[in-house]
Amino acid sequence: MNFKTIILLILVVIITIFFMQNTAPVEFWFFGKHIFALSSIIAITLFIGIIIGGILLRPKKRKTEVIQVNPANQSEIEQSSVPNSTLSNEDRDYIS
């Protein structure tokens, strides 16, 4: 077993023990009085927090810029982008 699996198993055991020890009924007000187990309120709150955190921390979409090249000017662009070198025309044809 690798390190991450062991850590995950330890966390699952700790969380399970925590929820099993917090089963006492508590009165909870959410648009009326309701009686829930304390562990269910904690679990629901944790789940809502994970969802909100995931929404707020998700990576933003990056805008990409598309540049269109006119085919008539493409050969000029390719020639200007190649630096002057000591290559022969035969070598340049081989590389490209």
From TrEMBL:
Organism: Sphingobacterium kitahiroshimense
Biased composition (Polar residues): 74-88
Transmembrane intervals: 35-57
Region (Disordered): 74-96
Name of the protein this chain belongs to: Lipopolysaccharide assembly protein A domain-containing protein
Keyword Transmembrane attached: yes
Keywords: Membrane, Transmembrane, Transmembrane helix
